[in-house]
Every structure is written in C-alpha cells, then in structure tokens.
Automatic annotation (TrEMBL):
Biological source species: Hyalella azteca (Amphipod)
Domain of life according to the entry: Eukaryota
GO CC terms in record: chitin-based extracellular matrix
Keyword Manganese among UniProt keywords: no
UniProt cross-references to InterPro entries, sorted A to Z: CHIT_BIND_RR_consensus, Cuticle_Struct_Prot, Insect_cuticle
Name the record gives this protein: Cuticle Protein CPR RR Uncl
Molecular function, one GO term: structural constituent of chitin-based larval cuticle
Keywords: Cuticle
UniProt entry tagged with the keyword Protein biosynthesis: no
Amino acid sequence: MFVLTVLVAVAAARPDKRTSEEVVPILRDDRVEFADGAYSFDVETGDGIRRSEAGQSQGDAGAVNMAGDYAFTFPDGQEFYLKFVADESGYKPESPFLPVAPAFPHPIPQFVLDQIAFAAKEDANRELDQARGDYVGYD
C-alpha cells in the first residue's frame, strides 16, 4: 500500500515541462564576421527566443563595443525584451522588466543643506590657511 501511495505521489508531482527529446527548430541563424574584428548575428528559434548583436573591436587592447537585444516568452505568455549597449563605460541594459531605483523619498531638510554648505566653507577656509601657512591642525 505504501509503495502504491509513493508511486501515485511521484506521478502527480511530475512537472509539465518539455522533455529533452523535443527539438526546437532554429528559424534564423545569420552570422557575419569581418576581418577588422566587427561582427553581427541574428538568431531566432521556434519557441520564440530571439537574439541580435553587433560589435566592433576597439584598439589593440582587445576591447569590443557591442549593442544588441534579446527576447523570449515566459510560460505565462508575457514577452520579455531587453536591449543593451556594452562599451568603455560599461554594460547598459534597458528593459521594462528591470527594476528602477525609487525616487528619493523626501526633500533634503534645510538644516542638512546648511550643514553641507558650512562644511564646504570650513574646507575652503582651511585650504586658504594652509596656503598662507596659518593652518594649525592635526597633520
């Protein structure tokens, strides 16, 4: 009886996912490589995955500037899309699915702004005193 219960539980818990035997067709696979290091590719599969990218070698250091996008469909039918640029200033993705930092929750209080201004004035005065040789500090 216990074995029968375990078999029923295992069968009921079987995930509804694709098996490794299913083959997803490649609908498009265009790749171009140039002698100067530039490249581009466009790939699309039968299950809705799309990826495009183009890049160019930058100088002798081996750095590559690239831009592209990719998309796929979540199991619930919602489509994910992301475009990106990757260059000397970093990787910059854009997508409505990426989190956005919240706006600062409130204005900075005036007493904080006053303190920042006062500290900046003290720093400037200290630099003037040091330049004149009048500075007495903890150096």
